[in-house]
Structures are given as structure tokens and as C-alpha cells.
Amino acid sequence: MSFKIKIYYIILILSILTININNFTYSQDNKDKKLSEENRIKNITEATEENYQFFINKKEYSIIYFYSKNIIESIKMKEIINKLELSQLKENYFILTINIDTNSGLKNSFRVSTLPAIVILKNKREIYGITGFIDDQFFLSSLIINGIKNNDF
């Protein structure tokens, strides 16, 4: 095989690899945008110490999920949190996810000692909490709904 043909094949292979990498990046960006849009529609947002007050002032209920990227169960449960079905609350809630690795002050403010953890507020007042890993979306949804119903004074 001549040198020119070898160079041609190398360039061809590199071109194909570049196209595949670009398609993967484009596809991943679209997935991230789609997930972000779905979360916006579902009233889910990543909150920080600087902006969480803004969100808890907006809706009657705030469901705050505390997680750490260093705890596998809390990452898995965050995926479940993103899929929660809370239609019984109508549109009167926000789900805030808070990474305690970068927002430890909020963990302390809400006295969270075990992760993963969920704190539920009604009009900025804590009414209910759940700690520990729950891997069933429907069970977790019903725990939240029933917790609100039973503690909604």
C-alpha cells in the first residue's frame, strides 16, 4: 500500500471519529437541554444558599432534596426525584435539589444529619421530613403527598 493511500485512510478514519464525537456531544447537549426543560416544567431546580429563598417564597410548598455527589444512593434518588408525580399539589410547589458538597450551610440550617434527605416546607415553615434512600418513585410520591396531608395545619 502506498504512503498516500495510508494517509488517505488515516484522514478518513479521523474524520469519521470526529463526526461521531461531535454527534455524541450534540446528542448529550440536547439531552441536557431536554432534561432542563422537563425539570422547569415540573418546577424542579437546583438551588444554592444564595437563591433558595427566592424559590421558597414563590410557591406554597417547597420540597427540598438534599444530596451529595459523594453518596451513590443520593445520586440515584436524585434521578427518582426528577421523575416524581405530584399532580395532587397542582402547580403550587417547587422541588429544590441542594448539593450539600457546595451548600453545607443549608444542610445545617435545616438540621439535616443523614443523606439523602427531603425537607418539606409550607409557606416557609417546615412541616415534614424524610431521610434515607427510597428507590421507588411511586412510594416516594405517596410519602410526600401523605406527609403533607397529615402535617398540613
Overall description:
- With 153 residues, this protein is an alpha/beta fold.
- It contains five helices and five strands; from the N terminus they run αβαβαβαββα.
- It has helices at 3-41, 52-56, 72-81, 104-109, 137-151, and strands spanning 44-46, 61-67, 93-99, 117-122, 125-131.
- The chain has a five-stranded mixed β-sheet with strand order 1-3-2-4-5.
- Strand 4 (117-122) and strand 5 form a beta hairpin.
Descriptive terms for the model:
alpha/beta; 153 residues; 5 strands; 5 helices; five-stranded mixed β-sheet
Task: Explain the layout of strands and helices.
Elements: H1 3-41, E1 44-46, H2 52-56, E2 61-67, H3 72-81, E3 93-99, H4 104-109, E4 117-122, E5 125-131, H5 137-151
Parallel strand pairs: 1-3, 2-3
Antiparallel strand pairs: 2-4, 4-5
- Span of the ends, CA to CA: 82 Å
Computed Rg = 22 Å
Q: How much is the average pLDDT?
A: 76
Biggest sheet: strands, sense, closure?
A: 5 strands, mixed
Low-confidence stretches are: 20-29, 31-41
Give the helix/strand class.
alpha/beta
SSE string: HEHEHEHEEH
Write a concise synopsis of the structure shown:
This protein has about 150 residues and is an alpha/beta fold. Helices cover about 50% and strands about 20% of the residues.
